[in-house]
Structure to design on (136 residues):
């Protein structure tokens, strides 16, 4: 378990592939996650890439102003319905495209994306929905 922001930073900035892997896999305390969000915007991408990130932290990052971070959030398989709905209407079409391709997207969110203003995204939503319905 990562117990300090400094430890998270050291793991993620390490030259050692093994230590960087630990930075992407070990969980952290809520205090560490919250401090990283408050005071270390430069590590938000590393936070999203952590495999043990709590859903509540993903929800907060889905609200952030950084397109790249939101795009990384849209890739995560353990998104809440709140985050999916928020990202489904994101101003950045790249974020919406990433979400519509997410294998764990909620079927109702996928249905909502049928009316996306970007025809390409709406088309992918339609194809994926047809696939879901064919599987039964």
């Amino acid at each position: 378990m990562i117990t300090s922001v400094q430890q998270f930073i050291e793991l993620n900035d390490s030259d050692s592939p093994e230590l960087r892997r630990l930075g992407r896999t070990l969980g952290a305390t809520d205090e560490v996650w919250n401090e990283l969000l408050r005071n270390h915007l430069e590590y938000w991408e590393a936070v999203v890439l952590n495999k043990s990130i709590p859903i509540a932290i993903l929800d907060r990052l889905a609200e952030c102003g950084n397109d790249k971070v939101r795009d990384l959030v849209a890739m995560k398989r353990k998104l809440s319905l709140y985050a999916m709905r928020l990202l489904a209407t994101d101003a950045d079409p790249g974020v919406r495209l990433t979400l519509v391709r997410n294998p764990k997207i909620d079927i109702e969110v996928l249905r909502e994306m049928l009316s996306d203003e970007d025809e390409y995204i709406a088309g992918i939503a339609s194809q994926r929905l047809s696939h879901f319905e064919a599987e039964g």
Remarks:
- Residues 65-136 form one domain.
